[in-house]
Write a structure and sequence with these properties.
The protein has 23 helices and 27 strands. By secondary structure, the protein is α/β, with parallel strands linked by helices. Strands 1-2-3-4-6-9 form a six-stranded mixed beta sheet, with helices on both faces. A hairpin with a 4-residue loop joins β24 and β25. α1 crosses α11. The radius of gyration is 29 Å and the shape is globular.
């Protein structure tokens, strides 16, 4: 398509129709000009193609892949790319041009009802995995819609509430995963979220949609609204929104036409959006002509099983209760074993292709299996079911209880009230532990949960929402057919009261204030020195790994971390080495550590491998709210290498001098302390006119008086002496900054 020529031929009404979605899932084409319509569909964890949004059961059958809460624990970019390939293939088969996903919003609090749909509390992990996912989908000629842009971290009154976030937190935490995906994966479209950001509705937020997204990040694709997120379509177009979804029918078309005719909207602004949409349509239709392998539902299901198994996190394994041996006589307990919680509610809900329950998955491969229901998911405290399960547990060598949140507790549209398992489940687990010492808890949940029974059980396996292959995948890990290698992509607190937004989250229907600023997730627990149930990045294996020969190399604008990783256990497995950095130089508040790099390494028993991870300069920068720009500090950094955010194998300081631009050493607002603590500056100060004009008692007692005045700014030093002109302050500042660069 010749986009410019087509645009010139379009009528005003045709342009208005193109920027207004229709029939729920479509961008309307222009038949007169041979511009075809294209379709989009929900699908972050599986295709949800449907015509009627109220009838999920009528959507096409599709493979339900594990939710992002679980896939993020893989820490595996290759697996996420393959997930994208599978989703893209599924979309192509159903003539879907744009898949609405992935969601890369930060898990600010475990109470967000949609956390199961997001990757992590850490922006780098979310950005890297989101980028791999996007590249995988788009490799199949299918577009994506990166969502929900931005600051959408709760479901309560999500259409109207404002997320009030300071500049540093916004840039370093909440925008960073979006920026990473935009710059590394070039997503076809971006979906703006419902909420307002610092008082401005995101669909009408020019700073967000134009100044940052397009001018700073260089984004060239289409920006669409979430379904029903626009208030004023005309103001949204002016701000940088290109496509209103799903559109309001004739009303949307008429308001755009009238706005142009009445000079409320410049036609050139409308043309800009139309041009981008035409480019999108052309790209989608060109991709349809290319041959891409279409994976069968069976192939997709097999991959879903592999992805789930390689993402599950082994949290506890006392006296090697796992893996289950062939001669173990096991009792399976819990309704979730026969009616599993494997996907979240809302727009990501999939009409699945095939489901094998955990109990069936176990029985299909293990001979000595009993079952006791233990509880009913309807929430009733059935003491007889608990009693029956406890009595049965005494007759088995091991007990595997399936516990978790209910299918109705985690969904789009509302938030969680707590992070507790149902009381009847907690009671059952405690009583089972009294009857049998070999209790293994298998969790099915969309976000973190409290575990008041953690000290009483031998094993815990976190499976999150594992998708339709939950039965096969869970057994493959329990049995040791797959060695668990997942690492937590979020911190598990001991109690909800320990989390950063506790007491303020969701307390107002009109605003959400991000009081904790940049201290989100593990950064909050670190700065407050809080104990946690399980730290970010944590996960056990059936084997052991050793780190050695660790070295740091300054490559000039990039830091190379090199080490040898060896599998010193009895079976093959994968480890996820994680690199954290600490800025020891900045005058700004800094987290104690920040994830800067990771990789996943598979090793056979006894095998060793040299691992190299390069950390780019961008991971060492922070957003300076005064300069409104990203900054790097020359100086000392602490580099840590470990297997979680709180388990380190290496810790070393390094001095990095990557900032070659002249930077002022001091200014008029600098304190005497900055001068006194710098030998060269203090020497220069003693030779300056500023020092010469000081009252003699001050000079005579410089070790005492000057240090007493160390937190006096240079501009106020004038009060300590007799001066004819205040220019002596500026003269000293200029001479000091002429000493060199920092």
């Amino acid at each position: 398509m010749n986009t410019e020529a087509t645009l010139k031929k379009m009528t005003l009404r045709e342009k208005a129709e193109l920027v207004s979605g229709y029939a729920l899932w479509f961008i309307k084409g222009v038949d007169r000009l041979n511009v075809p319509s294209i379709m989009m569909s929900d699908g972050p964890s599986g295709l949800r193609k449907q015509d009627d949004p109220t009838k999920v059961e009528e959507s096409v059958k599709a493979v339900n892949f594990p939710a992002s809460a679980l896939t993020a624990c893989s820490f595996d970019e290759d697996k996420l790319y393959k997930l994208g390939e599978n989703l893209g293939s599924a979309a192509r088969k159903e003539d879907v041009n744009i898949l609405l996903g992935p969601g890369v919003n930060i898990k600010r609090t475990p109470l967000n009802g949609r956390n199961f749909e997001y990757f992590s509390e850490d922006p780098l992990l979310a950005g890297k995995l989101g980028s791999a996912y996007v590249k995988g989908v788009q490799s199949q000629g299918v577009g994506v819609s990166l969502k929900h842009f931005a600051g959408n971290n709760r479901e309560l009154t999500r259409f109207t509430s404002t997320s009030n976030i300071d500049d540093r937190a916004l840039r370093e935490v909440y925008l960073k995963p979006f920026e990473y995906v935009v710059k590394n994966a070039n997503p076809t479209t971006i979906m703006c979220s419902y909420n307002a950001l610092n008082g401005v509705l995101n669909s009408q937020n020019k700073t967000l949609l134009t100044d940052i997204l397009r001018e700073e990040w260089g984004y060239k694709g289409v920006v669409m609204s979430d379904w029903g997120a626009t208030d004023d379509h005309i103001e949204a177009l002016k701000a940088g929104l290109n496509l209103e979804m799903p559109g309001k029918g004739e009303l949307s078309v008429t308001e755009v036409v009238d706005a142009v005719l009445n000079d409320r909207l410049e036609e050139s602004i409308l043309d800009n959006s139309v041009y981008r949409i035409l480019e999108l349509i052309d790209k989608c239709k060109f991709a349809e002509k290319n041959n891409h392998e279409v994976k069968s539902l069976t192939e997709q299901h097999e991959f879903a099983c592999d992805l789930a198994a390689n993402s599950m996190v082994l949290l506890k394994n006392d006296h090697d209760v796992l893996p289950i041996r062939s001669n173990d006589n096991i009792l399976v307990v819990g309704e979730l074993a026969i009616n599993p919680h494997y996907q979240g509610g809302g727009s990501s809900h999939v009409n699945l292709y095939s489901l094998i329950t955990p109990l069936d998955g176990i029985k299909d491969h293990h001979g000595m299996v009993g079952f006791s229901k233990g509880y009913e998911e309807n929430g009733k405290n059935n003491q007889q079911l608990i009693k029956d399960a406890v009595n049965e547990a005494k007759n088995y060598s091991k007990v595997v209880i399936f516990a978790g949140t209910t299918n109705s507790s985690e969904s789009e549209g509302f938030d969680r009230e707590n992070i507790s398992l149902p009381d009847y489940q907690n009671e059952l687990i405690c009583k089972l532990a009294e009857a049998n010492e070999n209790i293994v808890v298998v969790l099915q949940n969309g976000s973190v949960v409290e575990m008041p029974w953690i000290s009483k059980v031998a094993g815990v396996l976190e499976t999150y929402l594992a998708g339709e292959a939950v039965g096969e995948a869970t057994w493959s890990v329990l049995s040791g057919a797959v060695n668990p290698s997942g690492k937590l992509s979020e911190t598990f607190p001991i109690s909800l009261k320990d989390t950063s937004a506790y007491g303020t989250f969701g307390t107002s229907k009109v605003e959400e204030n991000y009081h904790e600023s940049i201290f989100v997730g593990y950064k909050y627990f670190d700065i407050k020195d809080k104990k946690v149930l399980f730290p970010f990045g944590y996960g056990l294996s059936y084997t052991k790994f050793a780190y050695s020969d660790i070295s740091l190399t300054d490559l000039g604008g990039e830091l190379q971390v090199k080490f040898v990783l060896k599998n010193i256990g009895a079976c093959a497995g994968s480890e996820v080495p994680q690199i954290y950095i600490s800025n020891l130089t900045s005058d700004f508040e800094m987290p104690k550590k920040v994830l800067a790099g990771f990789t996943k390494v598979y090793l056979n028993s006894g095998e060793s491998k040299e691992v190299v991870i390069n950390i780019k300069k961008a991971e060492f920068t922070y957003f300076n709210p005064i300069k409104q720009s990203w900054c790097f500090d020359n100086g000392e950094y602490l580099i840590q290498l470990g297997e979680s955010s709180r388990e380190m194998h290496f810790c070393e300081k390094i001095k990095l001098e990557w900032n070659t631009d002249p930077v002022a050493l001091i200014n008029r607002d600098s304190y005497l302390d900055d001068v006194i603590e710098n030998e060269k500056l203090f020497s220069l100060f003693k030779q300056s006119k500023l020092y010469a004009g000081l009252y003699q008692p001050v000079k005579d007692n410089n070790d005492a008086t000057l240090k007493m005045m160390r937190y006096t700014p240079l501009r106020s030093v004038l009060m300590l002496g007799s001066y004819k002109t205040s220019s002596v302050v500026d003269e000293f500042v200029n001479d000091a900054n002429a000493l060199g660069k920092c």
